[in-house]
Amino acid sequence: MTVKGKLPSPSATVDVSALPTGKLYLPDRWLFEDGDSDMQKARQFSPDFSFLISHPSGEHILFDLGMRKELENNPDVIRADYPYISPVVPKDATDLLDEGPVKSSDISTVVFSHLHFDHTGDPAKFSHATFVTGPGSSAATTPGYPRAAKSPFLSVVIEHPKYRELSFETDPWVPIGPFERAYDYFSDGSFYLIETPGHMPGHLGALAHTGTDEWVFLGGDCCHHRALLVGARPVSTTVGPNGTPSFHKDPLTAISTIEKVNMLQSGGDVMAALAHDAILEGLMPLYPEKLNGWKGAQWKQDIDDIVEQMYSR
């Protein structure tokens, strides 16, 4: 058991690469409680990152799929928000992988941080892989689109023949850092799936060991903007997409999770890579390059310097 706030020191590592699987814009008011209410003019540019995890055993997994190129195939309620979010997908996860050394056919598992459209991509392109989600994901998204015409979730994920939902009852979970529950995916301390609740049921973050005293935290949608992560602006709790009152199913829990992520990344050993963090554009190397060695390359220091300049009080 790890001491709260401390991380283990495993010998095993994984390689991590970022995939720029699309771009969209998020209305200010969806993100920030003090945001501008004009949801078409006041928007934040948001990349959409997925991540390739390569284990020394030769196993390759994806953390999220980003968006699909065939945007017309998304659920109706998602397409209704296109005037606000303006999604663009020049290349999807399959295209990006197949341009590099690890091909899409090499992926054995896709771990979904959660089941929103900008993270599930086109699941059919990875029909050979196992799909893994966090506890409660299927109950929160059943039956899904198109079985339920007004659902924002794709039914194809939870109906996949190789679908696996982690369980709090039958799978082993351990505390790590400030988080109460982490699942040691490869059973060697190199890659943990972490319960990061609040955004929606089943939401997972991940913590990848990329070198000695060096980790990368993959945040999914536990936090949508660096200003929210560092507490420079308040999380929106009253306006969200699809007519919902918040971007997060449980806003107060989401805020608590964000605080834990900030605690984790505030030290010198963890670099946070959020799925929609625009600050990472141009600073974080992209596949086939790796995020390993970020400490020596001072990428986190560069990010922290920009954040300090933008949000110093």
Summarize the structure.
By secondary structure, the chain is an alpha/beta fold. The chain has helices spanning about 30, 75-80, 80-85, 95-100, 115-120, 135-140, 155-160, 225-230, 250-265, 295, 300-310, and strands spanning about 15-25, 45-55, 60-65, 105-110, 130-135, 165, 175, 180-185, 190-195, 205-210, 215-220, 270-275.
Explain what the structure shows.
The chain has 313 residues and is of the alpha/beta class. The protein has a single domain (15-311), classed as Ribonuclease Z/Hydroxyacylglutathione hydrolase-like (Metallo-beta-lactamase, Chain A). Helix content is 21%, strand content 23%. The protein has eleven helices and twelve strands. The strands form two sheets. A six-stranded mixed β-sheet has the order 1-2-3-4-5-6. It has a six-stranded mixed β-sheet with strand order 7-8-9-10-11-12, covered by helices on one side. Strand 10 (204-211) and strand 11 form a beta hairpin. It starts with 14 loop residues before the first strand and ends with a helix. The model has no long low-confidence stretch (mean pLDDT 95).
Main features:
globular; Metallo-beta-lactamase, Chain A; six-stranded mixed sheet; alpha/beta; 11 helices; 313 residues
